[in-house]
Amino acid sequence: ARCAPADRGMKLIELMFKNQMTWARAEQPIAPLKAYAQLAGMSPAQVDACLQNAALLQAIKDEQSKATTLYQVEATPTFYVGDEKVSGELTYDAFAKIIDKQLAKAK
Fold first, then answer.
1. For residue 8, which of 38, 40, 58, 83 is within the disulfide window of CB 3.0 to 4.6 Å?
2. For residues 86 and 95, is the Cβ–Cβ distance under 8 A?
3. What is the distance between the alpha carbons of residues 91 and 81, in angstroms, rounded to a whole number?
4. From first to last of its 107 residues, what are the pLDDT tens digits of the chain?
5. CA 24 to the chain's CA centroid
6. Nearest to 57 by CA among 41, 27, 65, 12
């Protein structure tokens, strides 16, 4: 998605999330990911160049390391609501209670 044309990156992310169960479980996940990238306006050559971009891969790894070290993110999703770290899948009601508690603290 970072290599997609500027106005198409979010569309590519949406496609990837919408079809996550397909490509994430595929024996060869690169093929469907390349197809989604092409739908987002990338040529096969651009996709291959992106996949081989060592500087981009390192930047992504650095952000992951920063999140793990600085923010202690160990699960997806992880949110910070006020000063409270919230990890994992929560119901709407559970998430709402945390938000309400933090809003009350802020007053």
1. 40
2. yes
3. 15
4. 999 998 899 999 999 999 999 999 999 999 999 999 999 999 999 999 999 999 999 999 999 999 889 888 888 899 999 999 999 889 999 999 999 999 999 88
5. 13
6. 65
